[in-house]
């Protein structure tokens, strides 16, 4: 069995070099989806804000006289509502509450919406492994799309499918032990015929293909009494590349370490970062549109880093008078294990006391025998 675990972990590490995310679904992790579903009747509310900022200084020796340095911000705020329908089904509705697009409209408020349905929680391998499958949709409720420095948003109704596999070192207390999670899936941007870019003179560029990408994600979680230490790797590979007038025509990969602090049974806080590990060059892919990095010191494709701040609340909708969050389950399991360990300790102490009693009985028998021998000698 140990050989099987080693083979699975090595395989995931090999595949992880080209991994990616399913946008804005359940956020137990930032980008990686687990194969475990939410408990029935549980509502989890996730909020996440991520940002990148850089001083956009002018590049070159012929700086315009009226040029002023611009502090460039890339900000997105998300909210996700995930509900456990049954033991094997849950659903998540994500809303991009705010996204700075640096377009004439400046920002999307609100941005796009995301709907994800997950079928999972299927155990195998003596319950060390779980499997699941997700279907996700992106509904273009935001005004602006095809903006730079972010994942590709076509402005069309997008959809995708994602498989999820989870490994838990302890099958009886999965959230109290080391775990790994792996995703692989497909995404269709569905933009053929959609206007993706409009020049200042009114000329419009329309998509000529439905671009598709293959996406993967890999994550490891090390839980402690109050903190979860997490590391994710995510990225995409285009199966059908988009047109060259798309800002996010390059493939990407990010490494994302993060920490989750469990402030209460029903409340936790996240802090993390994304570090781009894919090339920063344009790769001769994006062209025919304005390149922000031509004259300004800004990223050619995706930012070098982003910071994440998040908050998660678990609400009980079953009316049973107790929280049903994974944090509560973890704490409840911890209490049971602690009780079991204390019982074992008491049992061990009882064994020691019993051994001491046996020793005292033996000493008493020996003393009684010595007394009998002395009496016999005195009588003789």
Topology:
Layout: H1 2-15, E1 42-56, E2 70-84, E3 89-100, E4 107-108, E5 113-124, E6 129-139, E7 158-168, E8 179-188, E9 195-198, E10 204-206, E11 212-223, E12 227-240, E13 253-264, E14 267-276, E15 305-316, H2 326-379
Antiparallel strand pairs: 1-2, 1-15, 2-3, 3-4, 3-5, 5-6, 6-7, 7-8, 8-11, 9-10, 11-12, 12-13, 13-14, 14-15
Account of the protein in words:
The chain is 18% helix and 41% strand. By secondary structure, it is an alpha+beta fold. The strands form two sheets. The protein has a twelve-stranded antiparallel β-barrel. Strand 9 (195-198) and strand 10 form a beta hairpin.
Question: What share of the residues lie within helices?
Answer: 10-25%
- As laid out across the biggest beta sheet, the strand order is 1-2-3-5-6-7-8-11-12-13-14-15
Structural class: alpha+beta
Low-confidence stretches: 1-22, 321-325
Give the percentage of residues in beta strands.
35-45%
Q: In total, how many beta strands?
A: 15
Give the number of helices.
2
Q: Tell me the overall shape.
A: elongated
Averaging pLDDT over every residue, what do you get?
Answer: 81
End-to-end Cα distance, whole Å, is: 73 Å
The radius of gyration computed from the alpha-carbon positions, rounded to a whole number of angstroms, is 29 Å
Q: What about the largest sheet?
A: 12 strands, antiparallel, barrel
Keywords summarizing the entry:
380 residues; two-stranded antiparallel ribbon; 12-stranded antiparallel β-barrel; single chain; alpha+beta; disordered N terminus
């Amino acid at each position: 069995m140990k050989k099987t675990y080693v083979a699975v972990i090595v395989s995931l590490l090999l595949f992880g070099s080209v991994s990616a995310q399913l946008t804005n679904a359940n956020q137990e992790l930032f980008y990686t989806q687990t194969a475990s579903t939410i408990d029935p009747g549980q509502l989890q509310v996730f909020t996440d804000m991520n940002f990148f900022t850089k001083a956009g200084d002018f590049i070159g020796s012929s700086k315009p006289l009226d040029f002023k340095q611009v502090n460039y911000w890339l900000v997105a705020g998300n909210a996700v509502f995930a509900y456990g329908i049954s033991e094997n089904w849950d659903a998540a509705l994500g809303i991009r509450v705010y996204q700075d697009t640096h377009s004439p409209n400046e920002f999307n408020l609100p941005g796009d919406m995301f709907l994800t349905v997950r079928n999972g929680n299927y155990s195998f391998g003596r319950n060390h492994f779980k499997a699941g499958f997700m279907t996700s949709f992106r509904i273009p409720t935001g005004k602006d799309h095809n903006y730079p420095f972010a994942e590709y948003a076509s402005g069309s109704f997008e959809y995708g499918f994602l498989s999820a596999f989870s490994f838990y070192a302890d099958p009886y207390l999965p959230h109290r032990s080391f775990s790994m999670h792996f995703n692989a899936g497909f995404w269709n941007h569905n933009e053929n015929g959609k206007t993706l870019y409009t020049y200042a003179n009114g000329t419009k560029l329309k998509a000529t293909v439905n671009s598709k990408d293959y996406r993967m994600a890999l994550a490891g979680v090390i839980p402690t009494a109050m903190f979860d230490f997490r590391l994710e790797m995510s990225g995409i590979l285009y199966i059908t590349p988009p047109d060259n007038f798309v800002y996010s025509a390059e493939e990407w990969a990010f490494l994302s370490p993060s920490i989750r602090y469990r402030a209460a049974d029903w409340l936790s806080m996240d802090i993390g970062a994304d570090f781009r590990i894919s090339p920063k060059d344009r790769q001769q892919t994006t062209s025919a549109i304005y390149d922000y990095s031509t004259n300004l010191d800004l990223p050619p494709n995706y930012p070098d880093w982003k910071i994440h701040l998040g908050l998660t609340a678990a609400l009980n909708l079953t009316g049973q008078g107790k929280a049903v969050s994974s944090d509560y389950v973890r704490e409840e399991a911890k209490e049971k294990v602690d009780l079991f360990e204390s019982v074992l300790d008491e049992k061990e102490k009882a064994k020691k006391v019993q051994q001491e009693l046996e020793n005292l009985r033996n000493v008493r028998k020996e003393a009684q025998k010595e007394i009998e021998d002395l009496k016999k000698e005195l009588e003789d």
